[in-house]
Amino acid sequence: MKDNITELWFSWFYKNWEEYAPGNLLESGLSPSQIAERFVNKNHDEFLKIAKEFDLENYLALNEFMKLSESELHILKYFLKLIRQKNS
What we know:
This protein is mostly helical. It contains 5 helices and no strands. 82% of the residues lie in helices and 0% in strands.
């Protein structure tokens, strides 16, 4: 595993994601998939550059993180469902 490469990814991603202002795009009516697609298109070359730095172990580590993130999303959806049920 290349040391600190996943840290590089997260530092790069969150810096660029924050600058991209996805909340403003949501407010303007774009869907989450549209926001993601635009972000990827805007940063395509940078994605390719960073991807070249990753080895298989880094890939597997990020894949595990993605699985945990998906689990968190399901939990949040469940929690929002409970709130909606309470308020209906």
